[in-house]
Amino acid sequence: MSNATIDDKGKISDGYHTFDELYEHRNLLFIGLMKANPCLSWRAINHADSTNYEGWFVCGMHLSTGDISYHLPIALWGLLDDSHIETLLIAPAWDGHSSADVVKRLKEWILLH
């Protein structure tokens, strides 16, 4: 285990990757999935209630198994430019999905394809 402090959680490692590295992988993999499926994908700065998190945007996909979404750092916004992914003024209403729901919906969707 890493010697990272509680205040530096992103540097905590399992001996192979830090949390920061794993989130970077997750963010880029999701962007890649969205770009491979632009007609299912969307991005927005604001949530459905017009609130937002400074420095972040919300993006998601309307899968046949249910919606999935993530907050991504605004620095990655440009990676979705020119990708035919819909840019919305406000995000679609959140259906209440949890992290566990996202995993379940992704697995089910993958099995269908």
Please give a handful of descriptors for the protein shown:
113 residues; four-stranded mixed β-sheet; 28% helix; 24% strand
Question: How would you describe this protein?
Answer:
The protein is α+β, with helices and mostly antiparallel strands and 113 residues long. The chain has one domain (6-112). The protein has 2 helices and 4 strands, in the order αββββα. A 4-stranded mixed sheet has the order 3-2-1-4. The longest helix is centred in the first third of the chain and has 18 residues, at 19-36. The radius of gyration is 15 Å and the shape is globular. The N and C termini lie far apart (38 Å). The model has no long low-confidence stretch (mean pLDDT 93).
What are the SSEs and their pairings?
Layout: H1 19-36, E1 41-46, E2 56-63, E3 66-73, E4 86-90, H2 99-112
Parallel strand pairs: 1-4
Antiparallel strand pairs: 1-2, 2-3
